[in-house]
Amino acid sequence: MKTIQTRFGEVTYDPSNVLHFPEGLIGLDQLKNFIVMPSKKKGPLFWIQCVDDPDFAFVVTDPTNFFLDYLVLPDDNERQKLGIDAQDDCFVLAIVSISEDKEITLNLSGPVLYAPASNRAMQVILEDSRYDTRTPLPKVG
């Protein structure tokens, strides 16, 4: 077990459970190793905490909780980087942002692909113009 100091206090984690981003995040390619931290509040959001830089963490969610038709499938090159085959699971996560006026948006144009079989992930850029880096949550009702 290893321990890091984070904004959440001292966090102990198992190095075998570290989520590895071989290419880092877009614009943050030096940040490659993260742990998943469940949110203390119930709901579809959870934290991804960087172990390379304990000051860095972000919130992610499954975008299909809010956008039922959102579908991203990894191509052969992405599957190779993730270390998975076509039959292996690959989940899509969206980075969540909250503006100063408390508007919640999802980055649907730069999702994170996560392969549990290899414990690898990568952020990709979609060419689909329907999606934005700050897509507001749909209005309910």
Structural description of this entry:
By secondary structure, this protein is mainly beta. The protein is 5% helix and 39% strand. The protein has one helix and ten strands. Strands 3, 4, 5, 6, 7, 8, 9 and 10 form an eight-stranded antiparallel beta sheet that branches. A hairpin with a 2-residue loop joins strand 1 and strand 2 (9-13).
Provide a count of the helices: 1
Q: How far apart are the first and last residues' alpha carbons, in Å?
A: 46 Å
Oligomer: single chain
Mean pLDDT score, rounded? 93
Proportion in helices: under 10%
The coarse silhouette is: globular
The major beta sheet can be summarized as: 8 strands, antiparallel
Order of helices and strands: EEEEEEHEEEE
Poorly predicted ranges (pLDDT <50, ≥5 residues)? none
How many runs of DSSP E, i.e. beta strands?
A: 10
Rg calculated over all Cα atoms: 15 Å
Give me the secondary-structure category. mainly beta
Strand content: 35-45%
